[in-house]
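Q: What would this complex look like in 3D?
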Amino acid sequence: MTSLFEEVPATADADADVPVRRVTVTLNGERRAADVEPRLLLAHLLRQGFRLTGTHTGCDTTNCGACTVLVDGLPVKSCTMLAVQADGHDVTTVEGLAGPSGLHPLQEGFKDEHGLQCGFCTPGMMLAAKALLEENPDPTEDEVRFALSGNLCRCTGYQNIVKAVLWAAKRMNGSEQ
Amino acid sequence: MYPSRFAYEAPRTLDEAIGLLHDGAGEAKVLAGGQSLVPLMKLRFANPELLVDINNLPGLDRLETLADGTIRVGALVRHRDLERAGDVHRIQPVVGAAAPLIADPIVRTRGTLVGSLCHADPQGDWAAVVTALRGYVVAQGPGGRREIPIGDFVTGPFQNVLAHDEVAVEAVLPGPRHTVAGGFLKLERRVGDFATAGTAVAIELDGDRVTRAGIALTGVGSRTVDATGAAEALVGRALTSEAIAAAADAAAEAAQPTADHRGSAAYKKHVIHTFVTRILTRVSTTSEQAA
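A: Here is my prediction, written as C-alpha coordinates for the whole assembly.
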Protein backbone atom coordinates (compact mmCIF):
# COMPACT_ATOMS: atom_id res chain seq x y z
CA MET A 1 0.00 0.00 0.00
CA THR A 2 1.24 3.46 -0.81
CA SER A 3 1.45 6.07 1.84
CA LEU A 4 -1.43 8.36 1.08
CA PHE A 5 -2.27 8.56 4.74
CA GLU A 6 -3.90 10.90 7.11
CA GLU A 7 -3.37 10.79 10.84
CA VAL A 8 -6.68 10.05 12.56
CA PRO A 9 -7.77 10.14 16.19
CA ALA A 10 -6.78 6.87 17.86
CA THR A 11 -10.41 6.13 18.58
CA ALA A 12 -11.66 6.63 15.01
CA ASP A 13 -13.14 3.74 13.06
CA ALA A 14 -11.39 2.71 9.88
CA ASP A 15 -12.89 4.42 6.85
CA ALA A 16 -14.52 1.64 4.87
CA ASP A 17 -15.48 4.01 2.04
CA VAL A 18 -11.99 4.86 0.84
CA PRO A 19 -11.89 3.87 -2.81
CA VAL A 20 -8.77 2.06 -3.95
CA ARG A 21 -7.72 1.25 -7.49
CA ARG A 22 -4.99 -0.91 -8.93
CA VAL A 23 -2.40 0.89 -11.06
CA THR A 24 0.04 -1.04 -13.20
CA VAL A 25 2.82 0.86 -14.95
CA THR A 26 6.00 0.07 -16.79
CA LEU A 27 8.36 2.08 -14.63
CA ASN A 28 11.85 2.52 -16.08
CA GLY A 29 11.31 -0.67 -18.04
CA GLU A 30 10.02 -2.72 -15.13
CA ARG A 31 6.39 -3.69 -14.53
CA ARG A 32 5.20 -2.31 -11.18
CA ALA A 33 1.77 -2.25 -9.56
CA ALA A 34 0.22 -0.46 -6.60
CA ASP A 35 -3.19 0.00 -5.03
CA VAL A 36 -3.86 3.69 -4.71
CA GLU A 37 -6.55 6.17 -3.86
CA PRO A 38 -7.66 7.99 -7.03
CA ARG A 39 -6.56 11.30 -5.55
CA LEU A 40 -2.95 10.17 -5.26
CA LEU A 41 -0.81 12.14 -7.70
CA LEU A 42 1.71 10.44 -9.96
CA ALA A 43 4.55 12.35 -8.27
CA HIS A 44 3.58 10.87 -4.92
CA LEU A 45 3.17 7.37 -6.26
CA LEU A 46 6.72 7.59 -7.58
CA ARG A 47 8.25 9.16 -4.50
CA GLN A 48 6.33 7.60 -1.62
CA GLY A 49 4.87 4.52 -3.26
CA PHE A 50 7.80 3.29 -5.30
CA ARG A 51 10.42 5.18 -3.26
CA LEU A 52 11.99 6.76 -6.34
CA THR A 53 12.79 10.13 -4.84
CA GLY A 54 14.70 11.42 -7.85
CA THR A 55 11.43 12.98 -9.01
CA HIS A 56 11.25 16.20 -7.03
CA THR A 57 8.12 18.08 -6.07
CA GLY A 58 8.85 21.79 -6.16
CA CYS A 59 6.00 24.23 -6.50
CA ASP A 60 3.23 21.59 -6.46
CA THR A 61 1.16 23.99 -8.60
CA THR A 62 2.11 23.05 -12.20
CA ASN A 63 4.61 25.87 -12.60
CA CYS A 64 8.15 24.71 -11.93
CA GLY A 65 8.58 21.42 -13.79
CA ALA A 66 10.82 19.86 -11.09
CA CYS A 67 8.46 16.85 -11.08
CA THR A 68 8.71 16.30 -14.85
CA VAL A 69 8.73 12.63 -15.86
CA LEU A 70 8.16 10.99 -19.22
CA VAL A 71 4.83 9.26 -19.80
CA ASP A 72 4.97 7.24 -23.01
CA GLY A 73 8.09 9.25 -23.87
CA LEU A 74 6.49 12.68 -23.48
CA PRO A 75 7.27 15.11 -20.65
CA VAL A 76 4.52 15.52 -18.05
CA LYS A 77 4.34 17.35 -14.74
CA SER A 78 3.75 14.43 -12.42
CA CYS A 79 2.22 16.68 -9.74
CA THR A 80 -0.59 17.41 -12.19
CA MET A 81 -1.49 13.89 -13.25
CA LEU A 82 -3.34 11.38 -11.12
CA ALA A 83 -1.49 8.14 -10.50
CA VAL A 84 -4.55 6.22 -11.75
CA GLN A 85 -4.15 7.95 -15.11
CA ALA A 86 -0.75 6.36 -15.58
CA ASP A 87 -2.35 2.90 -15.48
CA GLY A 88 -1.17 0.89 -18.47
CA HIS A 89 1.41 3.49 -19.47
CA ASP A 90 5.16 3.69 -19.67
CA VAL A 91 6.79 6.00 -17.10
CA THR A 92 10.43 7.09 -17.12
CA THR A 93 11.98 8.88 -14.16
CA VAL A 94 15.52 10.16 -13.69
CA GLU A 95 16.38 6.79 -12.14
CA GLY A 96 15.72 5.26 -15.56
CA LEU A 97 18.16 7.50 -17.44
CA ALA A 98 21.42 5.69 -16.80
CA GLY A 99 21.93 2.45 -18.69
CA PRO A 100 24.00 -0.64 -17.91
CA SER A 101 26.98 1.03 -19.58
CA GLY A 102 26.87 4.05 -17.31
CA LEU A 103 25.41 7.52 -17.20
CA HIS A 104 23.17 8.85 -19.95
CA PRO A 105 24.86 11.49 -22.15
CA LEU A 106 22.54 14.09 -20.60
CA GLN A 107 23.81 13.17 -17.15
CA GLU A 108 27.38 13.32 -18.43
CA GLY A 109 26.62 16.68 -20.01
CA PHE A 110 25.16 18.16 -16.82
CA LYS A 111 28.27 16.97 -14.98
CA ASP A 112 30.74 18.15 -17.58
CA GLU A 113 29.17 21.54 -18.28
CA HIS A 114 28.27 22.25 -14.64
CA GLY A 115 24.58 22.14 -15.52
CA LEU A 116 23.53 21.95 -11.90
CA GLN A 117 24.06 24.00 -8.79
CA CYS A 118 21.65 22.92 -6.04
CA GLY A 119 20.38 20.10 -8.27
CA PHE A 120 16.72 20.41 -7.37
CA CYS A 121 15.48 21.14 -10.90
CA THR A 122 17.99 18.78 -12.55
CA PRO A 123 15.88 15.59 -12.91
CA GLY A 124 13.04 17.53 -14.52
CA MET A 125 15.45 19.42 -16.76
CA MET A 126 17.08 16.22 -17.95
CA LEU A 127 13.78 14.48 -18.73
CA ALA A 128 12.40 17.50 -20.59
CA ALA A 129 15.70 17.58 -22.50
CA LYS A 130 15.49 13.86 -23.25
CA ALA A 131 12.07 14.33 -24.83
CA LEU A 132 13.46 17.22 -26.89
CA LEU A 133 16.46 15.26 -28.16
CA GLU A 134 14.29 12.34 -29.15
CA GLU A 135 12.17 14.60 -31.33
CA ASN A 136 14.95 16.91 -32.43
CA PRO A 137 18.41 15.30 -32.10
CA ASP A 138 20.29 18.43 -33.22
CA PRO A 139 18.55 21.42 -31.62
CA THR A 140 19.71 25.01 -31.77
CA GLU A 141 20.33 26.90 -28.56
CA ASP A 142 16.97 28.67 -29.02
CA GLU A 143 15.20 25.36 -29.44
CA VAL A 144 16.74 24.06 -26.22
CA ARG A 145 15.67 27.19 -24.35
CA PHE A 146 12.13 26.92 -25.76
CA ALA A 147 11.85 23.21 -24.86
CA LEU A 148 13.01 23.90 -21.29
CA SER A 149 10.78 26.94 -20.79
CA GLY A 150 8.42 24.94 -18.57
CA ASN A 151 11.22 24.07 -16.16
CA LEU A 152 12.45 26.59 -13.62
CA CYS A 153 15.93 26.73 -12.11
CA ARG A 154 15.92 29.01 -9.09
CA CYS A 155 19.71 29.04 -9.00
CA THR A 156 19.16 30.63 -12.44
CA GLY A 157 21.79 28.31 -13.88
CA TYR A 158 20.17 28.26 -17.29
CA GLN A 159 23.32 29.13 -19.18
CA ASN A 160 25.05 25.91 -18.22
CA ILE A 161 21.90 23.83 -18.41
CA VAL A 162 21.53 24.82 -22.04
CA LYS A 163 25.20 24.08 -22.63
CA ALA A 164 24.78 20.67 -21.00
CA VAL A 165 21.89 19.74 -23.30
CA LEU A 166 23.82 20.87 -26.39
CA TRP A 167 26.81 18.86 -25.14
CA ALA A 168 24.61 15.76 -24.81
CA ALA A 169 23.11 16.28 -28.28
CA LYS A 170 26.57 16.44 -29.77
CA ARG A 171 27.69 13.32 -27.89
CA MET A 172 24.58 11.37 -28.85
CA ASN A 173 24.90 12.32 -32.51
CA GLY A 174 28.60 11.48 -32.46
CA SER A 175 28.11 8.03 -31.03
CA GLU A 176 25.45 7.20 -33.63
CA GLN A 177 27.80 7.79 -36.52
CA MET B 1 -1.21 18.93 -1.81
CA TYR B 2 -3.92 16.37 -2.32
CA PRO B 3 -7.36 16.90 -3.78
CA SER B 4 -10.23 16.02 -1.46
CA ARG B 5 -11.53 12.50 -1.81
CA PHE B 6 -13.43 11.60 -4.96
CA ALA B 7 -14.60 8.56 -6.87
CA TYR B 8 -12.91 7.87 -10.20
CA GLU B 9 -14.20 6.19 -13.32
CA ALA B 10 -12.43 5.73 -16.65
CA PRO B 11 -15.15 4.58 -19.05
CA ARG B 12 -14.40 3.00 -22.42
CA THR B 13 -17.37 4.41 -24.33
CA LEU B 14 -18.90 7.87 -24.66
CA ASP B 15 -22.36 6.57 -23.72
CA GLU B 16 -20.93 5.13 -20.54
CA ALA B 17 -19.26 8.48 -19.74
CA ILE B 18 -22.53 10.34 -20.32
CA GLY B 19 -24.36 7.83 -18.11
CA LEU B 20 -21.87 8.38 -15.30
CA LEU B 21 -22.20 12.17 -15.62
CA HIS B 22 -25.99 11.83 -15.63
CA ASP B 23 -25.95 9.73 -12.46
CA GLY B 24 -23.45 12.16 -10.93
CA ALA B 25 -26.27 14.73 -10.92
CA GLY B 26 -24.02 17.76 -11.13
CA GLU B 27 -21.39 16.53 -8.67
CA ALA B 28 -19.28 14.88 -11.39
CA LYS B 29 -16.59 16.50 -13.53
CA VAL B 30 -15.01 15.43 -16.80
CA LEU B 31 -11.25 14.91 -16.67
CA ALA B 32 -9.42 15.38 -19.98
CA GLY B 33 -5.95 16.97 -19.85
CA GLY B 34 -6.38 17.95 -16.23
CA GLN B 35 -3.92 20.83 -16.43
CA SER B 36 -6.45 23.27 -14.95
CA LEU B 37 -8.79 20.90 -13.13
CA VAL B 38 -6.16 18.97 -11.16
CA PRO B 39 -4.50 22.16 -9.78
CA LEU B 40 -7.95 23.52 -8.88
CA MET B 41 -8.75 20.28 -7.05
CA LYS B 42 -5.42 20.33 -5.24
CA LEU B 43 -6.12 23.88 -4.10
CA ARG B 44 -9.64 22.69 -3.11
CA PHE B 45 -11.30 25.28 -5.33
CA ALA B 46 -12.98 22.35 -7.08
CA ASN B 47 -14.23 19.36 -5.08
CA PRO B 48 -16.13 17.04 -7.42
CA GLU B 49 -17.49 13.82 -5.93
CA LEU B 50 -16.80 11.90 -9.11
CA LEU B 51 -14.20 12.31 -11.84
CA VAL B 52 -15.10 10.85 -15.22
CA ASP B 53 -11.78 10.41 -17.00
CA ILE B 54 -12.39 10.52 -20.76
CA ASN B 55 -8.79 9.75 -21.73
CA ASN B 56 -9.64 6.17 -22.68
CA LEU B 57 -12.53 7.06 -24.99
CA PRO B 58 -11.72 6.09 -28.58
CA GLY B 59 -11.67 8.67 -31.38
CA LEU B 60 -11.58 11.83 -29.29
CA ASP B 61 -7.89 12.34 -30.07
CA ARG B 62 -8.70 12.91 -33.73
CA LEU B 63 -7.53 16.16 -35.36
CA GLU B 64 -9.12 16.33 -38.80
CA THR B 65 -8.84 18.76 -41.67
CA LEU B 66 -11.63 18.40 -44.21
CA ALA B 67 -11.45 19.19 -47.93
CA ASP B 68 -13.32 22.49 -47.44
CA GLY B 69 -10.80 23.64 -44.82
CA THR B 70 -12.97 22.81 -41.83
CA ILE B 71 -10.86 21.76 -38.84
CA ARG B 72 -12.29 19.37 -36.27
CA VAL B 73 -10.46 19.22 -32.96
CA GLY B 74 -11.40 16.23 -30.79
CA ALA B 75 -11.66 16.59 -27.02
CA LEU B 76 -8.37 14.74 -26.48
CA VAL B 77 -6.28 16.67 -29.01
CA ARG B 78 -3.48 18.15 -26.91
CA HIS B 79 -1.96 21.62 -27.28
CA ARG B 80 1.20 19.75 -28.27
CA ASP B 81 -0.59 18.09 -31.19
CA LEU B 82 -1.89 21.45 -32.41
CA GLU B 83 1.58 22.96 -32.04
CA ARG B 84 2.94 20.36 -34.47
CA ALA B 85 0.00 20.22 -36.91
CA GLY B 86 1.51 21.89 -39.99
CA ASP B 87 -1.55 21.12 -42.14
CA VAL B 88 -3.77 22.96 -39.64
CA HIS B 89 -1.40 25.95 -39.51
CA ARG B 90 -1.49 26.24 -43.31
CA ILE B 91 -5.28 26.48 -43.26
CA GLN B 92 -5.54 28.74 -40.19
CA PRO B 93 -2.28 30.50 -39.30
CA VAL B 94 -3.83 31.91 -36.13
CA VAL B 95 -3.89 28.38 -34.67
CA GLY B 96 -0.21 27.90 -35.47
CA ALA B 97 0.62 31.27 -33.90
CA ALA B 98 -1.28 30.57 -30.68
CA ALA B 99 -0.36 26.92 -30.02
CA PRO B 100 3.29 27.46 -28.96
CA LEU B 101 2.17 30.25 -26.59
CA ILE B 102 -0.25 28.12 -24.57
CA ALA B 103 1.06 27.55 -21.02
CA ASP B 104 4.50 25.87 -21.26
CA PRO B 105 5.84 22.92 -23.27
CA ILE B 106 5.29 20.36 -20.50
CA VAL B 107 1.72 21.46 -19.81
CA ARG B 108 1.09 21.34 -23.57
CA THR B 109 1.75 17.58 -23.51
CA ARG B 110 -1.46 16.99 -21.56
CA GLY B 111 -3.72 20.03 -21.87
CA THR B 112 -6.43 20.14 -24.54
CA LEU B 113 -8.06 22.87 -26.64
CA VAL B 114 -11.58 21.66 -25.88
CA GLY B 115 -10.76 21.48 -22.17
CA SER B 116 -9.47 25.04 -22.32
CA LEU B 117 -12.77 26.18 -23.87
CA CYS B 118 -14.77 24.33 -21.19
CA HIS B 119 -12.64 25.76 -18.39
CA ALA B 120 -13.61 29.23 -19.69
CA ASP B 121 -10.82 31.11 -17.98
CA PRO B 122 -11.16 34.80 -18.97
CA GLN B 123 -7.40 34.73 -19.55
CA GLY B 124 -7.47 31.56 -21.67
CA ASP B 125 -5.94 31.74 -25.13
CA TRP B 126 -7.86 29.20 -27.23
CA ALA B 127 -11.24 30.82 -26.59
CA ALA B 128 -9.95 33.97 -28.31
CA VAL B 129 -8.71 31.95 -31.30
CA VAL B 130 -11.96 30.01 -31.63
CA THR B 131 -13.99 33.23 -31.24
CA ALA B 132 -11.98 34.98 -33.98
CA LEU B 133 -12.62 31.98 -36.25
CA ARG B 134 -16.35 31.78 -35.40
CA GLY B 135 -15.92 28.22 -34.21
CA TYR B 136 -18.36 26.09 -32.29
CA VAL B 137 -18.36 23.29 -29.74
CA VAL B 138 -20.09 19.96 -30.33
CA ALA B 139 -21.62 18.55 -27.16
CA GLN B 140 -23.11 15.15 -26.67
CA GLY B 141 -25.58 14.25 -23.94
CA PRO B 142 -28.31 11.67 -23.32
CA GLY B 143 -30.54 13.49 -25.84
CA GLY B 144 -27.97 13.47 -28.66
CA ARG B 145 -25.60 15.99 -30.16
CA ARG B 146 -25.82 19.75 -30.44
CA GLU B 147 -23.60 22.47 -31.84
CA ILE B 148 -22.98 25.51 -29.66
CA PRO B 149 -21.39 28.66 -31.15
CA ILE B 150 -18.41 29.71 -29.03
CA GLY B 151 -20.10 33.03 -28.20
CA ASP B 152 -22.96 31.15 -26.53
CA PHE B 153 -20.78 28.42 -25.04
CA VAL B 154 -19.09 30.52 -22.39
CA THR B 155 -21.58 32.11 -20.00
CA GLY B 156 -19.16 33.79 -17.60
CA PRO B 157 -15.81 33.39 -15.87
CA PHE B 158 -15.15 29.64 -15.51
CA GLN B 159 -18.71 28.88 -16.59
CA ASN B 160 -20.04 27.19 -19.69
CA VAL B 161 -23.43 26.25 -21.02
CA LEU B 162 -22.98 22.45 -20.90
CA ALA B 163 -25.59 20.45 -19.02
CA HIS B 164 -24.18 18.30 -16.21
CA ASP B 165 -24.54 15.17 -18.37
CA GLU B 166 -23.07 16.60 -21.57
CA VAL B 167 -19.53 16.03 -22.83
CA ALA B 168 -17.86 18.53 -25.18
CA VAL B 169 -16.61 16.05 -27.76
CA GLU B 170 -15.00 18.41 -30.25
CA ALA B 171 -14.47 21.99 -31.37
CA VAL B 172 -15.01 22.86 -35.01
CA LEU B 173 -13.36 25.70 -36.93
CA PRO B 174 -15.37 26.35 -40.11
CA GLY B 175 -13.52 26.33 -43.43
CA PRO B 176 -12.56 29.67 -44.97
CA ARG B 177 -14.03 30.94 -48.27
CA HIS B 178 -11.18 33.20 -49.30
CA THR B 179 -7.48 33.68 -48.63
CA VAL B 180 -6.78 33.36 -44.93
CA ALA B 181 -4.47 35.53 -42.84
CA GLY B 182 -4.12 36.39 -39.21
CA GLY B 183 -2.08 35.94 -36.11
CA PHE B 184 -2.00 35.69 -32.36
CA LEU B 185 0.05 37.80 -30.01
CA LYS B 186 0.22 37.48 -26.25
CA LEU B 187 2.01 39.45 -23.61
CA GLU B 188 3.00 37.34 -20.62
CA ARG B 189 5.38 38.22 -17.83
CA ARG B 190 7.06 34.84 -18.17
CA VAL B 191 6.39 31.55 -19.92
CA GLY B 192 3.40 29.80 -18.43
CA ASP B 193 1.89 32.88 -16.84
CA PHE B 194 -1.60 33.97 -17.77
CA ALA B 195 -1.89 36.56 -20.51
CA THR B 196 -1.50 40.17 -19.44
CA ALA B 197 -3.30 40.75 -22.72
CA GLY B 198 -3.67 38.69 -25.87
CA THR B 199 -5.13 39.22 -29.31
CA ALA B 200 -6.35 36.76 -31.93
CA VAL B 201 -6.94 38.06 -35.44
CA ALA B 202 -8.39 35.94 -38.24
CA ILE B 203 -9.28 37.54 -41.55
CA GLU B 204 -10.15 36.44 -45.07
CA LEU B 205 -9.17 38.40 -48.15
CA ASP B 206 -10.55 38.41 -51.67
CA GLY B 207 -7.77 40.16 -53.55
CA ASP B 208 -6.89 43.06 -51.30
CA ARG B 209 -10.40 43.38 -49.86
CA VAL B 210 -11.27 41.93 -46.45
CA THR B 211 -14.33 39.68 -46.75
CA ARG B 212 -14.46 38.38 -43.21
CA ALA B 213 -12.77 39.39 -39.98
CA GLY B 214 -12.71 38.13 -36.42
CA ILE B 215 -10.80 39.88 -33.65
CA ALA B 216 -10.97 38.49 -30.13
CA LEU B 217 -9.15 39.55 -26.98
CA THR B 218 -8.08 37.69 -23.87
CA GLY B 219 -7.06 38.88 -20.42
CA VAL B 220 -8.96 42.13 -20.79
CA GLY B 221 -12.41 41.34 -19.41
CA SER B 222 -14.42 38.90 -17.34
CA ARG B 223 -14.65 36.74 -20.45
CA THR B 224 -13.11 36.57 -23.91
CA VAL B 225 -13.92 39.83 -25.70
CA ASP B 226 -15.33 39.51 -29.21
CA ALA B 227 -14.27 42.86 -30.68
CA THR B 228 -16.99 42.97 -33.34
CA GLY B 229 -16.55 46.70 -33.87
CA ALA B 230 -12.91 46.15 -34.75
CA ALA B 231 -13.83 43.41 -37.21
CA GLU B 232 -16.49 45.60 -38.81
CA ALA B 233 -13.91 48.34 -39.34
CA LEU B 234 -12.11 45.99 -41.72
CA VAL B 235 -14.80 44.14 -43.67
CA GLY B 236 -15.27 45.42 -47.21
CA ARG B 237 -12.08 47.47 -47.12
CA ALA B 238 -8.47 47.00 -48.07
CA LEU B 239 -5.92 46.77 -45.24
CA THR B 240 -4.88 50.39 -45.50
CA SER B 241 -3.17 52.10 -42.59
CA GLU B 242 -6.46 53.96 -41.97
CA ALA B 243 -8.46 50.72 -41.78
CA ILE B 244 -5.85 49.16 -39.51
CA ALA B 245 -5.88 52.20 -37.21
CA ALA B 246 -9.69 52.12 -37.05
CA ALA B 247 -9.67 48.43 -36.14
CA ALA B 248 -6.98 48.94 -33.47
CA ASP B 249 -8.93 51.86 -31.97
CA ALA B 250 -12.12 49.81 -31.88
CA ALA B 251 -10.37 46.81 -30.31
CA ALA B 252 -8.80 48.93 -27.57
CA GLU B 253 -12.24 50.46 -27.01
CA ALA B 254 -13.83 47.00 -26.69
CA ALA B 255 -11.25 45.83 -24.16
CA GLN B 256 -12.45 46.09 -20.56
CA PRO B 257 -9.33 45.37 -18.55
CA THR B 258 -8.92 45.86 -14.84
CA ALA B 259 -5.69 47.03 -13.25
CA ASP B 260 -3.70 44.37 -11.46
CA HIS B 261 -0.10 43.36 -10.83
CA ARG B 262 0.27 42.75 -14.56
CA GLY B 263 -0.46 46.36 -15.47
CA SER B 264 -2.91 49.23 -15.42
CA ALA B 265 -6.11 49.21 -17.44
CA ALA B 266 -4.75 51.92 -19.74
CA TYR B 267 -1.57 49.91 -20.31
CA LYS B 268 -3.51 46.78 -21.27
CA LYS B 269 -5.65 48.75 -23.72
CA HIS B 270 -2.45 50.11 -25.20
CA VAL B 271 -1.11 46.57 -25.59
CA ILE B 272 -4.29 45.48 -27.40
CA HIS B 273 -4.01 48.48 -29.73
CA THR B 274 -0.40 47.62 -30.48
CA PHE B 275 -1.13 43.92 -31.06
CA VAL B 276 -3.99 44.54 -33.51
CA THR B 277 -1.86 47.06 -35.40
CA ARG B 278 1.11 44.70 -35.47
CA ILE B 279 -0.78 41.64 -36.71
CA LEU B 280 -2.71 43.53 -39.39
CA THR B 281 0.35 45.46 -40.57
CA ARG B 282 2.24 42.21 -40.94
CA VAL B 283 -0.64 40.74 -42.97
CA SER B 284 -0.85 43.77 -45.25
CA THR B 285 2.91 43.82 -45.80
CA THR B 286 3.00 40.10 -46.53
CA SER B 287 0.13 40.23 -49.02
CA GLU B 288 1.69 43.23 -50.77
CA GLN B 289 4.89 41.27 -51.19
CA ALA B 290 2.96 38.28 -52.52
CA ALA B 291 1.07 40.43 -55.06
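A: To summarize the key features: The longest strand of chain B covers residues 197-206. Chain B touches chain A at residues 1-8, 10, 31, 34-35, 38-39, 41-43, 51, 53, 55, 80, 100, 103-107, 109-110, 191-192 (CB under 8 Å).
Q: Very helpful, thank you.
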